[in-house]
């Protein structure tokens, strides 16, 4: 005999609980809607039975009049179930992108800020949510990553996000909530078909189900398979990347020549590189432009930028760089002892003077390079810093980030905090602390 939906849902939570190391707290993301109210109710049963610690977290976005009613409902439910609840107020910046996306971003940031590292957060998304996400992403032209929709388990900024009910239909959750008499709050915006997701839920999926009653389950299954294929592909590409990366964390252009590797593979490799560095991947057009340039002239001065990052070529290697502002003015005083945090980077080695001229100049002045500096190098005489940088292995775009160090009116040293490259005048020495 088939199990009632609530028994099936509870069993999935028992299984998910078994994956969590003993002693770690289980958190439930409680919006106050049907799904997460049911999740908390069944999680409380499982945790009570197994002696595990359970807590709930509600994020108040303050976006709609009903926000306080949601919070009040969460408080009442947690009180009834004797589950400690944290309510976090966030402010949603909807100036960029839609309000839904901004609320989501603020919510996840609140989860990460509030939940201790390595704890697990359960979210109540189900099969129909998964089918909707799959369709929304397909309609945006997503590749395998997007079509994988929501993974069942994801490690995100130190915490584990788990969706134990992705295999269960909305109908099963509704039946279980009614059978258990779980109270919940209805979100009035869920009916508003001006939102893409609501339009899919209320207009498109019912139409699909008329012809294909299993549409929700099948679309969610496609998402599962796409997600699995994507994870597998990522693992292969990471290994590929590891084999190619130089000690400077660059890719040799020779290995990227299209005769060596076909374009789809190169595109995937470059995207995985961005993912590894925690940077946004280039949009398709930018990526194609980069590959065209690489294809045309191997050693060309290629530069392709997109929001948050850029790739550049120099001396036969491809560099992936985070978008950073160059701060080219200001100065700080320094005793010469590391570490020194500056607006331009942290100096991790100390600058000492061998001949104790420092008695006359107790403080050094640290300032970004302006151009025209000359350093009196030991054994080489006076040299333009510009020439020294040209001779160095420092890529041209990094030279603007070089700092100069002054004792009075004399430039006694220069350094590039990000790479650790340093130059010193005669009588001065950098010492690694
Ligand atoms: N304000 C919130 N505070 C805490 N968790 C939330 C909040 N909003 C959403 N979540 C979590 O994210 C999941 C998915 O969010 P989504 O917006 O799809 O759900 P919902 O319709 O608001 O609520 P429910 O899933 O409880 O019916 C929820 O099931 C819940 O676990």
From TrEMBL:
Q: Which SUPFAM superfamilies match?
A: Adenine nucleotide alpha hydrolases-like (SSF52402), MesJ substrate recognition domain-like (SSF82829), PheT/TilS domain (SSF56037)
Tell me where in or outside the cell this protein is found. Answer: Cytoplasm
Q: Which UniProt keywords apply?
A: ATP-binding, Cytoplasm, Ligase, Nucleotide-binding, tRNA processing
Kindly state which reaction or reactions the protein catalyses.
cytidine(34) in tRNA(Ile2) + L-lysine + ATP = lysidine(34) in tRNA(Ile2) + AMP + diphosphate + H(+)
HAMAP family in the cross-refs: tRNA_Ile_lys_synt
User: Does Nucleotide-binding appear among the keywords?
Assistant: yes
Which protein are we looking at? tRNA(Ile)-lysidine synthase
Q: Its Enzyme Commission number?
A: 6.3.4.19
Q: Where does ATP bind?
A: 31-36
SMART domains this protein is in?
TilS_C (SM00977)
Enzyme class per UniProt: ligase
**What free text does the record give on domains?**
The N-terminal region contains the highly conserved SGGXDS motif, predicted to be a P-loop motif involved in ATP binding.
| One Pfam entry name | TilS_C
Which Gene Ontology molecular-function terms are recorded? tRNA(Ile)-lysidine synthase activity
Query: What role does it play?
Result: Ligates lysine onto the cytidine present at position 34 of the AUA codon-specific tRNA(Ile) that contains the anticodon CAU, in an ATP-dependent manner. Cytidine is converted to lysidine, thus changing the amino acid specificity of the tRNA from methionine to isoleucine.
Taxonomy, top ranks, is: Bacteria, Pseudomonadati, Pseudomonadota, Gammaproteobacteria, Oceanospirillales
Name all Lysidine-tRNA(Ile) synthetase C-terminal domain ranges: 364-430
CDD domains, per database record? TilS_N (cd01992)
